[in-house]
Structures are given as structure tokens and as C-alpha cells.
Design brief:
Length: about 325
């Protein structure tokens, strides 16, 4: 009897090691999308990207145990990152599947650009050093090539399916989805050192922001308050304000920090926000009527954002209809 128990224990131990090894393998399957497999290695690229984005959105000093203890809206931050990563990779797979269904191909010039990008990596890091370099981004040369291909599949599919989106739709998008805003910024961070203000300086910054909010809500000339008190250099370089959409600033690259963007897009024309706190400081935001001449100046960019928005709606619908199966044992083991 005792001998049987020992043998059984050994079998269980071996089985456990086998399962753990399978979960840790880079080729382990995290999920399937309409039967197509997402490997752990592919998923880790998206997770690395999302984690980097989340870290960039935090204050300057990120504690060592951030990914073990931090939470977003009551959810562990690592779980939040994994959900976002899975969302993104699933959409990438669906977009490629739909591209293939619609007989969309990678154009010859795009293939040349992919080959050139891979060749540049080899020239810079050597054939044996490419994967080591790419590993810091959660990539290998094969995954990198696949991501470049997927981006072109998606771009070409967007071009095919949104070719009927016209200037009138772009004007509507400009009116309804892009907000022109100005803001008063009172810094809570020392821009020379990157460190948060403390003590009396921190108290003074918050007090000043509260006082300016009261004056702005009381009807004082907002442009004058911006000119006299805002500590954002952009208040001088962008006197007509910023034109913000979801994830972008019109006429520029990149976008505003999430808290600022969300608050801006929620405002009605003429409305002044409450204090919006970001890693830079305290913002008081006012939304203005869009200037139609700005649309004319940025027509091509607005049209591109309009097409992407139309495509994103299609993608959301495809995702809702897709068969997506997560392999919990592998997914849950990822930290």
C-alpha cells in the first residue's frame, strides 16, 4: 500500500512539472481566435507594450513592487494590463483574418519596407544579435516580422472598407469627436528634477489651483486666466488651444495624458472642468467651439481618423461575433 502511494505521488509530481513546463513554454497557447492560436510569446509582446504604456502614465517614481501590489479601479494592475493586451492581440488577429477573407494582400512596396526594416536590424546588431536586441521589447525577429505584416494587412483593409468615407463624414467627426480646449496648469512636479513638490510648495500649488478654479467657475475671462497663470509652455505656443481626439492631438503626434483627454472629451462647449489631476499637476480645462478653418488645415488627418473610427466600429462588431477561447491555465500563470 505504501509503495503504491509513493508511485502515485511520483506520477502526480511528474504531471505537475509537465503542466508547469507547458504553461511556461513560449509556444504555450494563451487563447484562440476563430480557431487560430495565440502563443504565449506573441501575447508577451503585447503585454510588454501595454506595461510600458502604463508605466509611462504613472508618476516618476514607480515602486519596485508596482506590478505585484498596485491596483487600477480595484483591480490588480497586472490583470488590467493582461486584459488590455489580450484585447489588442485579439483585434489584431481578427483584422488579419478579415483581410485574408477580403483577399487583401501585402503590397510589393510594403514587403520591401518589411525586408528593409529586418535588414537594418541585422546590419546594426548582427544576425545573431537581433533576437537579443528585440527581446527587451518582448519580440523575436519572427514576431517582429509578423507584427509588421499585420499592421500592413490592417492598413490595407481599412483602405478597402472605408474608401466611401467622405469629407462630410470627416466634418461630422471633427464636430462631434474632436474637442478644442484650453487649460490652466499649476505644476505639482518640479520640471527640472521630475520629482513631486512636497511640503509648503505642494500645499501652495493646490491652494492656487483651487482659487483659480473658483475664479474660472465664477465667470472670469478664461483666456486671461490662462495667459496670467498657466504653467504649461503650450499655453503660449498654442494660443488657440489644443484639438483633442481619442488618442491624438490634431496637427501633432501622440496625445494628452489619459486623465486630461477623458475630461476634455466629456466637456460641453463653454463648460469649465473641475480640477483634473495628472502626473504634471492640476489642470482646469475649458472647451471651446471648434474653428472650421482648422478642419480645412488638417483635412487629410481628420479624414484618416474618421476612417479609423469607422473601421474600429466594424472591428468591435467582428470581435463580438468571433469565437474567442482563453486558455485559463496558461493565461493565469502569466505575471
Amino acid at each position: 500500500m505504501h509503495k503504491f502511494i509513493k508511485v502515485l505521488s511520483l506520477v502526480v509530481a511528474v504531471a505537475t512539472v509537465t503542466v508547469l513546463a507547458a504553461c511556461n513554454s513560449k509556444n504555450a497557447i494563451v487563447a484562440t481566435v476563430n480557431g487560430e492560436k495565440i502563443t504565449k510569446q506573441e501575447f508577451m509582446y503585447y503585454l510588454t507594450s501595454v506595461k510600458s504604456q502604463i508605466e509611462n502614465e504613472q508618476d516618476n517614481d514607480i515602486p519596485e513592487d508596482f506590478w505585484d501590489t498596485a491596483e487600477i479601479d480595484g483591480q490588480k494592475v497586472i490583470e488590467n494590463a493582461k486584459e488590455k493586451a489580450l484585447e489588442e492581440i485579439v483585434k489584431s488577429f481578427i483584422a488579419k483574418q478579415k483581410a485574408i477573407e477580403n483577399n487583401v494582400k501585402i503590397k510589393s512596396e510594403q514587403r520591401q519596407q518589411i525586408n528593409a526594416a529586418l535588414g537594418q536590424l541585422v546590419a546594426t546588431h548582427g544576425k545573431d544579435g537581433v533576437d537579443e536586441y528585440l527581446s527587451q521589447f518582448g519580440l523575436t525577429s519572427k514576431i517582429y516580422e509578423k507584427q509588421l505584416e499585420n499592421s500592413y494587412y490592417r492598413a490595407n483593409l481599412v483602405e478597402l472598407l472605408t474608401q466611401d468615407v467622405d469629407e462630410q463624414q470627416a466634418k461630422e467627426y471633427f464636430k462631434n469627436n474632436i474637442a478644442r480646449v484650453k487649460h490652466i496648469l499649476i505644476l505639482s512636479t518640479d520640471m527640472n528634477t521630475g520629482e513631486n513638490l512636497s511640503g509648503d510648495e505642494a500645499i501652495a500649488a493646490r491652494t492656487k489651483a483651487d482659487e483659480l478654479l473658483e475664479r474660472a467657475k465664477g465667470g472670469e475671462d478664461f483666456d486671461k486666466l490662462v495667459a496670467e497663470h498657466s504653467e504649461d509652455p503650450g499655453s503660449t505656443s498654442q494660443p488657440d488651444g489644443y484639438y483633442l481626439g481619442k488618442g491624438f492631438i490634431l496637427g501633432s503626434e501622440g496625445g494628452m495624458v489619459p486623465e486630461f483627454e477623458t475630461a476634455s472629451l466629456e466637456l460641453e462647449v463653454g463648460e469649465v472642468s473641475d480640477i483634473v489631476e495628472t502626473r504634471y499637476g492640476y489642470h482646469i480645462i475649458k472647451r471651446y467651439e471648434n474653428d472650421e478653418s482648422v478642419f480645412e488645415e488638417n483635412k487629410e488627418q481628420v479624414l484618416a481618423y474618421t476612417k479609423n473610427s469607422v473601421f474600429d466600429e466594424m472591428l468591435d462588431q467582428w470581435k463580438a461575433e468571433a469565437k474567442i477561447e482563453k486558455v485559463d491555465k496558461v493565461y493565469n500563470a502569466i505575471k
